[in-house]
Amino acid sequence: MSAARQPSPTVRDEAAPAPAAAKKARAPRARRAAAPPRGVRPAPALGGDERARLLEGRHHDPHGVLGARAARGGVAFRVLRPYAKAVTIVAKGLRAELFDEGDGLFSGLLPLTGVPEYRLLVAYDSDEIEVHDPYRFVPALGELDLHLIGEGRHEQLWTALGAQPMEHQGVAGTRFTVWAPNAQGVRVAGDFSYWDSVAYPMRSLGASGVWELFLPGVGAGALYKYDITRPDGSHTLRADPMARSAEVPPANASVVTASGHVWRDAEWMAQRGERPPHQAPFSVYELHLASWRPGLSYRQLAEQLPAYVKELGFTHVEMMPVAEHPFGGSWGYQVTGFYAPTSRMGTPDDFRFLVDALHRAGIGVIVDWVPAHFPRDDWALAEFDGRALYEHQDPRRAAHPDWGTLEFDYGRKEVRNFLVANAVYWCEEFHVDGLRVDAVASMLYLDYSRGEGEWAPNEHGGRENLDAVAFLQEMNATVYRRCPGVVTIAEESTAWDGVTRPTDSGGLGFGLKWNMGWMHDTLRYMSKEPVHRKYHHHDMTFGMIYAFSENYVLPISHDEVVHGKSSLVSKMPGEDWWQKRAAHRAYLGFMWAHPGKQLLFMGQEFAQGSEWSEAYGPDWWLLDDSYAAAGDHRGVRSLVRDLNRTYTAAPALWERDTVPEGFAWVEADAAEDNVFAFLRYAQDGSQLLAVSNFSPVVRHGYRIGVPAEVPLWREVLNTDLQVYGGSGVHHTQPLRAEPVPAQGRPASLRLTLPPLATVWLRP
Fold it and tell me: pTM surpassing 0.70?
């Protein structure tokens, strides 16, 4: 909380007490001894219990006792203004000072025939302001919104809950709404009240569990939190779960915001759904925004990132979580503000500007989304209203055993609605093109990282989390229905059946799934010395046994280049950096030709030798001319560029990624040679031949079987070219197929295989 911050004059004019008054310690004040105001009689007194509930933040209907209403003898007014010296009712032809009841309450009975359009003139020690009375407004949330919230089916929940600047009953202000069904009472506090919690109690909107208050004069930029009275009577000050903006951490107040961004990506949005992602070119550059170029804002990133990614030829970027999080070292995976892009790099509109710039450069945007868990910070979601609310009530299902966090209660309809709407929110409000859903496996299994006695089976006696399954199915179905062209991607590391199968066929409904098994197997092979690789040959071929069981992404992600795992190039064996970089290049060539979409984490595109750290980001200095080996690193980056460009231009590498007809082994058993060869096929039958030699020797006259109907093959990519830092062994002329059978095929090519290299050939 930022209690020391001063509100802007425009906010203070409407809602704030005087600064000097706000610095006083709050204590009950005796009634003034002054004579009653003229023309004003005492209003009916509040009962002691009702008065206490109002002042202690336990009143469910403050609008029933505050504001103005018809009473016997006229109209009764009651106002709650802590620290005020006097409150006067001001209307057309009317100016009447109210009685001071003490404790910030002012009231009076005026001889009027009806409630007028009135304002409050509030006097403090050194100031006097004229404001609208928040308690003269009817609820600003409609019955349909409340019905959908109650049903857990409000697909645009962010339009109903949170802080919404708006005009209500002809007055500009902000509607505050929050779901807190266990609370005895809720009050909104902020810089507009100098963080005094007493002044603005909210009303309960029935059985919905929603509390609401419209505050006139409060607008975009205002800081706020909710003061919640727990069931035991204690208080907790919480950030808004639906906040669409937040203070820069470690400060944690929520920020009222409204978007003014004008999108310029209509062409991108119109065409992005023309081809299903699993049948389209899809190569992803994964990055951590805050450390890609440390210190850059969203708008500064918009000047550099699109051009860099476009030059490298990636079709998409994947951003590690951008939702607000308190600890930068979590990389965004412990979220406290699910609806707020992190303010570390700018405002929500600044983030929109970045997405817009990427789209106009022809680059799709995927964001990591984290519905698996949330941190225990006492100002955020944990026991939000005094009891388990967003987390499961069963401690065995609430506590995440790996990360010290809490798991969501996917069986509670309001919590499920909070998350499903959040997925839609990022797609609709920020035009993102994909959601990579983090830690799906930890959601699917009740016994995930739990020992015997630490978990309870489901109703059928199984280990599957049926609530999480239903949630994921609902989330995917809703996103695909509402947001054409968006893809959802599961980080799911087990053999769960049907992750990318449609929900109407019993699947989870994801569009793509990370192939963690392929990644682990192939990296294990690559980490071995070439002389030992023959004993691990199956690690490179095993993935094809299940390659078409799901729609896969092949991920070399941030998880593989941190925490002692080494960068990609440093995983390669030996002390010879030429061989390390050559193996790195050969592996990327194998990966880009393999069935499945591609994902590469930042820094790996130029063979950075050190592990990634969010503290300093990629080692860009490796590309500087002053560094002796800069040319080798630039060579690897040039290879990645050419891999992407050749890949995108070759439908054989992506059109039939998910069906067996798109792939055929040519050589899968040459373990002694460390050689692999396979064919890829496009819908029209066009082909691409990929051959990898993972030994450090040149293999002359190596026969590779090819179809007899293709007479000539030309080399279209070779990771050993000198421009990439290789030795330069390549084929300068097209190769003619010879009628010599090989690997069960009627014809063959005699190739010279470069050392530690992958070669692509096309007819």
Answer: yes
